[in-house]
Predict the structure.
Amino acid sequence: MADKKADLAGPGISTYEAVNEVLPNDYTSLLTRKETQIALWEVKKYIEDQLCKELNIFRIESPLILERDSGMNDYLDRDGSRTPIDFTAGLGLEKRMDAQVVQAATKWKRFALKQFECDMHQGILTDMRAVRKDYFLDHDHSSYVDQWDWEKVIKAEDRTLAYLKSTVKSLWKVFKGADEFVRKMFPKLNDPKYPPIPDELVFLHAEEILDMYPDLPRKQRETKIIQKYPAVFIIGIGWTLNDGYPHEMRAADYDDWVTPTVSDKGAPMHGLNGDILVWNPVTKRRHELSSMGVRVTKETLVQQLKLTGQEHFLKMPYHQMVMNDQIPLSIGGGIGQSRTYMYLLRKAALGECSVTIWPKQLHEVCEAHNIHLLR
């Protein structure tokens, strides 16, 4: 049980000795650094264009900083272990503004649907940048975050598993198309060691996966299921499962993980959110591409904040907008850009795609495995 509890709060391996153990020993990048940068740009354009087409969304700008007391910043989980960077801004003001660096634009996007006057079933796409200072920095987690964040207006009757799954299938179509596109542009990526990404995305509820592997912590359960089905959408992340723990702690004020649902086999479940995970044939590990979900109503917001002991959030401007029906019902998610590039370009580390800071220990470990991080 101790292992299960320690495994709840997000990503990271936790030691560089462990990173050294999991990195591949036979790795050689299929693309040069120059080719990689060209490929990143081409894939970026393709994915953004296709997301807009498949989801009926349009490109907007998003903030890097937010007012601290707006309630719009993302706390990533609900145990307080990953806090934003706080600072004051506004030289010459009698009282400087209290600001935060964005950790994710999850809640801001729902407000943005109203700000940009989106119609029903229309939405927005952002090229989001953020800083998450409290991550363990390894081969697939960075303090610098680049995401495609998207959000879309929906009706009350769209708040169903069927609508969620339909949207996820549209995302998977974009991933599949991007894989075919970049392999055609760079034939060197057609290496038999690394097959094309799977045609089928399997939908499973977190409770169903727990039933299969009741004694394993979350990451080990995910690894087992991804080895069985190399592309999975895990539904219901945040709700407390039958073992007394959520699959993973999810913030209480954007995704709806409390709404009752029913599995394909007729079993009672909870949650209208989930993550896309794939098997990475390069690292031979689980690999998360996207987190998304139907967003809370005012009723489920209150319920989730009560369950997590965070009812004080209800006083914040964002939460008041939800409570007073001032922003629309929506569905939305985030897609890790460098995480997606890493998967599509058959890379072993984020640092081959993303220019940011990495500790000396990680540079040394990666160099020993013929992985060269950008500086």
Summary: Residues 54 and 170 are 6 Å apart (CA to CA). The mean pLDDT is 94. The chain has one domain: 2-368. The domain at 2-368 is CATH 3.30.930.10 (BirA Bifunctional Protein; domain 2).
